[in-house]
Specification:
Distance between the termini: 36 Å
Number of strands: 4
Structural class: mainly alpha
Largest sheet: 4 strands, mixed
Number of domains: 1
Order of helices and strands: HHHEHEEEHHHHHHHHHHH
Strand content: 5-15%
C-alpha cells in the first residue's frame, strides 16, 4: 500500500485492549511476580536471550534482506517508534516473536515469510512492534523462561508456594492471550486495511499449504461468527475445554482474535485513530 499514514506521536494506550490492561493489572498483583522479575534481571536472562537469538538468526538491514528491513522501517515509522533489530531464522513452523527488554528485536521464522504476502507482513511486523511499544516484552520474556525461574526462586517444592506458582502461571498466560489482541490492533494500524489483517490471520491459522490460494476470507469470518454465536451447550463445552486445555495457552483461539479485531474496527476506534484522534506523547508530557 502506497502512502501509509504515519501516526505521529501515538501512544500505546491508543490501541491497548481493555482486557489486556485488566489482565496485566491482575498479573502484577500476584505475589511471586516481583521476585521472578528481579531474578530475571539479576541473572542477566534478557542478555542471554538476546545473544542466543543473535547466534541462531540472520540480522536484516540495508544490505541483508533489504525488503524485510524496508517493511520494518516503514512499519516503525507508522507507529512513530524506534526501529528494533530484525532477524530471520530457519524454522518450518510459521511464527514470529519480539524480545529484548534492553535491546528490542523481532525475529521472523523463514516459514512465516513464505506463508504471508508482502502486505500481510506489514500486519505481522506491526503486530510485533505493538508488543514492543505496549511494553509487553518484559513479561513475555519472563513467561518464556518462567518455570526455570520459578525453580530458581525455590517455590515449586514449598507446599503453599505451589499455589502461588500455579496462580502466577495462569495469570501470566491469561495476560499473554489478551496482549495478543492489543498487538493485532497495532498490526492493523500498520497494515491499514482490515482485509489484509484478516488474511494474515487466516494464512497463519491454516498454515503453509499449496492450496493457500484457495482460502476464503468471508467463509473464515462466517466461521468466526458462528464460533462466537454458539448455543448454550456449545458455550459450556468451550468453557470446559478451556479449563482442561486452553488455560495455559499463550495465544487466544485464532477465530476469536480475528473477530475481536473486526469488532474493534466496527466500534469506530480504528477510524478515530486513523483520523488523528488518539493520545499523543506531548499530551502526556503536558498532563
Amino acid at each position: 500500500m502506497a502512502n501509509r499514514k504515519r501516526l505521529d506521536g501515538i501512544e500505546a494506550r491508543a490501541f491497548v485492549a481493555e482486557t489486556d490492561r485488566v489482565a496485566l493489572d491482575a498479573l502484577k498483583r500476584v505475589p511471586l511476580l516481583p521476585q521472578i522479575i528481579q531474578k530475571f534481571f539479576d541473572l542477566g536472562v534478557d542478555r542471554w536471550l538476546y545473544c542466543w537469538n543473535m547466534s541462531m538468526s540472520v540480522r536484516c538491514g540495508p544490505n541483508q534482506f533489504k525488503s524485510l528491513y524496508e517493511i520494518l522501517r516503514e512499519s516503525s515509522d507508522v507507529l512513530d517508534m524506534p526501529e528494533p533489530e530484525l532477524y530471520v531464522t530457519s524454522n518450518p513452523f510459521p511464527n514470529a516473536f519480539a524480545g529484548g527488554v534492553e535491546r528490542p528485536y523481532i525475529t521472523l521464522r523463514s516459514s512465516i515469510i513464505d506463508t504471508l504476502t508482502d502486505e500481510q507482513l506489514y500486519h505481522l511486523i506491526g503486530h510485533e512492534l505493538g508488543h514492543i511499544k505496549a511494553g509487553h516484552v518484559l513479561y513475555r520474556s519472563v513467561a518464556s523462561v518462567l518455570i526455570p525461574l520459578l525453580e530458581m526462586v525455590g517455590r515449586r517444592t514449598m507446599g503453599l508456594g505451589d499455589v502461588a506458582t500455579i496462580g502466577l502461571v495462569l495469570a501470566m498466560t491469561e495476560w499473554s492471550r489478551q496482549a495478543e489482541l492489543t498487538a493485532d490492533r497495532a498490526g492493523l494500524l500498520v497494515a491499514q486495511d482490515l482485509n489484509t489483517s484478516i488474511d494474515a490471520n487466516l494464512a497463519l491459522t491454516a498454515g503453509p499449504s499449496r492450496f493457500l490460494h484457495e482460502v476464503n476470507r468471508d467463509a473464515f469470518m462466517d466461521q468466526a461468527r458462528a464460533y462466537q454465536e454458539a448455543g448454550a451447550l456449545e458455550n459450556l463445552g468451550k468453557i470446559l475445554i478451556f479449563i482442561l486445555r486452553g488455560s495455559t495457552y499463550t495465544h487466544p483461539m485464532p477465530v476469536h482474535r480475528t473477530q475481536q479485531l473486526e469488532r474493534w474496527v466496527l466500534s469506530g476506534a480504528y477510524d478515530k485513530i486513523m483520523a488523528g484522534d488518539y493520545p499523543r506523547r506531548q499530551e502526556s508530557a503536558a498532563s
